Amino acid sequence: MSGLLPCRFSEVAASDKQTPFPGVYNFSSSLQTIPFLSIPIMKRKLTLNKVKVLRQTEIAPGVFVLSFLRPWEFTAGQVLGIGAHATDEARLYSIASGELDDEVDILYNINPDGKLTPWLAKVVTGDSIWVSEPCGSFTGSGEPAWWIASGTGIAPFRAMFRTGLIAGKKLIHGGRDLSSFYFSDDFTQKVKDNYIRCCSRESAEGVYSGRITHYLSGLPALPAGEKYYLCGSAEMVVEVRDILIAKGVPFDNIISEIYF
Amino acid sequence: MPESKEQLFGKTLAELSVLAESLGLPKYTGGQLAYWLYKTDITSFDEMTNISKKSRSLLAEHYVPGVQPPERVQQSADGTKKYLFRAGNGKFIEAAYIPDGKRHTLCVSSQVGCKMGCLFCMTGKQGFQGHLSVGEILNQLRSIPERRQMTNIVYMGMGEPFDNLEAVMKSLEILTAEYGFAISVRKVTVSTIGIVPAMRHFLEHSKCNLAVSLHTPFDEERRRLMPIQNVYPLKDVIETIREFDIGKYRRVSFEYIMFKGVNDSRRHVNELARVLNKVKSRINLIRFHPIPGTPLLGSDEAAILDFQQALNDKGIVTTLRASRGQDIDAACGLLSTKELLKAQESD
Description:
- The structure holds 2 protein chains of 2 kinds.
- Chain A is of the alpha/beta class.
- Helices cover 15% and strands 30% of the residues of chain A.
- In chain A, helix 2 (155-162) links the parallel strand 9 and strand 10 (169-175).
- Chain A is globular.
- Chain B is an alpha/beta fold.
- In chain B, strand 9, helix 5 (165-176) and strand 10 form a beta-alpha-beta unit.
- The longest helix of chain B has 13 residues, at 301-313.
- Chain B starts with 5 loop residues before the first strand and ends with a helix.
- The mean pLDDT of chain B is 92.
């Protein structure tokens, strides 16, 4: 068996708390064109299909938004697999664009030790990448809820935001420095006072100085009947979940997506 | 500097043979190294007496054997022992040795901490600090005094084994190969929360037993308990297992921690019977060992026994796992080095 294992199932570095969704599918591959799915579903075996990159934008140091034309329908909050080749192991990333957008946006940061992102960051307009159908059940709804993210874990909430699910939502985003608050112009404009940025290493007007856990711990009370969606590193999700539970939020109302 | 040398312990026979040849040694030196590393208690090259002195010196210039003793051991009143090891990244891991009559089980870790964030697990509360290497996984067996008594190895310690698939698969090879520890594949069990692609790879390439953390057959409940459900739902896990002819050569079990008022009703019994229909498997019921800050409670003993009986009545072989080592936090779901991690960070 030695040397026969092509898969390394995580590209997250122990020191990197904000690496994009690196869960992996060992996708079967296909050169067929992408079927247009009317209902996003989860399959055990997904197919990787080639798409052309429309755009790649570095929105913060080492953090990129990669865009391609939307080939299927999806539900905001879902993920898709990305590979460099048809036969690659694919890694999962949350979709960061809205259900009605023409383009699919993927938010990721470079993990220098990763197998995909150093390559992905070099992709330019017109290059091909391989993507799967969307899947996953971390999906939003129109009911009041708290969206809590760290780093690139903001991606599914950006998808929900662009899908129009923002009414009744409170969005809390944690980051190390001020450049970590991706898409903040949009959120500031539309979510207004319900958009809270928690910055652990820098300070600025209108930005909470401290970790997201510190901000939540300092809140006097939390509505126990609302849903709490958490997305980001395991550390953030576990710590925030403990705080919410300690403040009386039933665990039934906490839905988590961990970037692993 | 010895620290900068690569470790031999944890390398497969093929890898040892390649490195021997790369040093200009005969290919069979790989087999000699495997023998000394995996069949004996030696800790230095000098003790490898069937390898020439010159060859040993050459090996020592480039490699270290790499076996590390545990840093600490705690013993439970019930005989369970919890071993503490220092991993290569300076962090700590734990392994639990559980004697039970003629059965001697070692519960090994595959990662420092865990990324999966299950609501009921103490390991998850410390976050993730790194993957273990093949050598670090196997060292948990190799370096403890009970090594030669061990009858069963379970990958149920810290971490999600299938999130560290490459190292886990190599460690399984060395554990079960004739050149290695030569433990029967029927005595080795890998536990997973159900990372489907990695689980499929394991089922295709290993004959060891599989244990899947199930904990509730209902999707919505499961994703509250285990975030992985969002990406790899239980139905996909079970459908993948169905694809393999399990019953002929290995055992698949589903781990089910009993939570009071959450997953211990007749509704759950009925749904378990439905989703596991025609899957050759058994269910292991596990008493919940509460962790700090958890909103979950363990089911009452009577409820657990009633649940077990109801499942057996449905034709599902259901066992109840004894709680062992609870007084030293070595029981299921309690392994954690979070306090040591905190102490390290404050130093």
